[in-house]
Amino acid sequence: MLLPANPPDLARIIVAFEALPHANVLGMTFLSLDHGRGSVKMPYRPDLVGNPKTRVVHGGVITALLDTLCGAVVMAAVAEGTPLATLDLRIDYLHPATPEETIRASAECYKVTANVAFVRGLAYHEAIDDPIAHCAGTFMLGTGFSATAAGTVAASAADAGADAAGGTGGGQPC
Amino acid sequence: MLKTIAALKQSGNVAALNDLIPYARAVGLEAMLDEGGLLVALRFRESNIGNTQLRAIHGGVVGALIEHAAILHLLVETETAVVPKVINLSIDYLRPCLAADTFARGSVLKQGKRVANVRVIAWQDGPDRPVAAGHAHFLLT
Predict the structure, then answer these.
(1) How far is A39 from chain B (nearest CA, A)?
(2) What is the interface pTM, i.e. ipTM, of the complex?
């Protein structure tokens, strides 16, 4: 799909994201990464349970997994070294995750403009057509930080958007 | 579970209520009462870092703080008889959430028979400089 003029090194993005301290907590690993799309998985973790009665993982686990994947997918869709920061993220919880089962997620960056990248994703167990959660997010480009120095998403600064001169990913000004 | 929640709510022991949740202990979420009501804290931990360059907290953990503050707010501050089920959650990231403790407080914008709409503000330096804001819908049936 999206391929910027100076495409990023996908292997380096995977290494950078899997090395993040909180990605380690989740036990998150990449299943695939292409320019503008990717998928990850994480094992069930009893210490990340949100409801001890049902043993379902906390919603924050799904949020963190999807946020990380979305950041990686955006980084893979824009020019090498483009810094980015999450502007917003919306999660719809479609049904509870099943205890003991591996959680997978897939996401795609479906539009890149001069300042903003738009991304959507799904979390699921075995079948993507039976999703646990859906997400839609936007990322500011040209602010935050880049994978070239082994950085990634996370923090986010809407107030830094004004100097987002990025625009390296092509597309229309947002 | 509901009986335990009701008993802890009755006694005002929000810390024990919080500690029932394994995830809260795993990432360093704490609950307390102050003059403003329920306050939720996300203690700084290296394992919550999501940006190694800025040493910023992972956006997903900030989202978890907001969701946790919203659920506990409903459990502690309202007459909810069931554990609220989150329908959706929207998070706006406003400033970098750096390597320090983060706090969050919720408020109910609308509570109907089946759905509650909860707003949450999260901050580090003070509520007037929020690092993130969120709103969530919960099913109360």
Answers:
(1) 17
(2) 0.91
